[in-house]
Amino acid sequence: MTPVKLIDHTLLKPDTAEKDITRLCNEARQYGFGAVCIPPFYVKHAVELLEAEEDVKVATVIGFPMGYSATAAKVEEIKRAIDEGAHEMDVVVNLCAVKNGNWNFVRNDIDSMTRAAHLHGRIIKVILETALLADEEIEKLAAICTEVSPDFVKTSTGFNGGGATVEVVRKLRGLLPDHIQIKASGGIRDAATMQQMIEAGAGRIGTSSGVAIAAELGG
Predict the structure, then answer these.
(1) Mutual angle of helices 191-200 and 166-175, in 10-degree steps
(2) CA 19/CA 120 separation, integer angstroms
(3) What one-character DSSP code corresponds to residue 8?
(4) Which domains does the chain possess?
(5) pLDDT one digit per residue (tens) for the chain, 219 residues
(6) Which residues of 43-58 are buried (b: 16+ CB within 10 A; e: fewer)?
(7) Which of 77, 97, 145, 193 could bridge across to 105 with cysteines, CB 3.0–4.6 Å?
(8) N- to C-terminal Cα distance for the chain?
(9) Global pTM?
(10) Are 204 and 34 in contact (CB under 8 A)?
(11) What are phi and psi of 204, to 5 degrees?
(12) What angle do CA 122, 150, 177 make, to 5 degrees?
């Protein structure tokens, strides 16, 4: 797999316009990125634009960026995104529950979202927001994800504090079984940083700098 196929070409700004999504999808097609990651509002538009492009998937976000929506609301978001054609869901854990040590709630939240996605054969990426977590919280979340088995664990939203680091990707890779991949996201703006994340164990890269990275890689 070429490095650019690992990129989720991302645009999640709150003032994103339809023309921006059109540009993003055209860039994904041109450079051969693995997916576009976009606001739920634009899923249908992106699916229509990429309908003939089987290699570029449409990913969207759930409970984004705070994660403290009710579990039922997140599940409904997932169902709506699937109905509109999304292939992959990047979902945010409930950090309020994490910080209160309410691990039964956290497990149910992650499990409910994972089941909703997997029931329809969709990919789910669980966002931990590692910059806001203590080591023991990361370890506990990794243990829950090991039990529930989402497809990916993702480092960060990119909206709440720091993004991905080599250290946290390496830590997650050591905590998770091989079948759960890692998506590094937040602050990855050049090919060298992307390569460091891949070497640390990331199997997917979330970035809004995909075009610049592809240019560096000779794409």
Answers:
(1) 20
(2) 30
(3) E
(4) 3-216 (3.20.20.70)
(5) 789 999 999 999 999 999 999 999 999 999 999 999 999 999 999 999 999 888 999 999 999 999 999 999 999 999 999 999 999 999 999 999 999 999 999 999 999 999 999 999 999 999 999 999 999 999 999 999 999 999 999 999 999 888 999 999 999 999 999 999 999 999 999 999 999 999 999 999 999 999 999 999 986
(6) bebbbebbeeeeebbb
(7) 97
(8) 14
(9) 0.96
(10) yes
(11) -150, 150
(12) 135
Beta strands (DSSP E) in 19-141 are 35-38, 57-62, 88-92, 123-127
pLDDT at 52: 81
In the chain, the DSSP E strands lie at: 7-10, 35-38, 57-62, 88-92, 123-127, 152-154, 181-185, 204-207
Query: Which two three-digit tokens encode residue 14?
Result: 């709150």
The total of other beta-carbon atoms located within 10 Å of residue 113's CB is 25
Residue type (1 letter), 20: D
Catalytic residues: 90, 154, 183
Rounded CA separation 93/116 (Å):
15
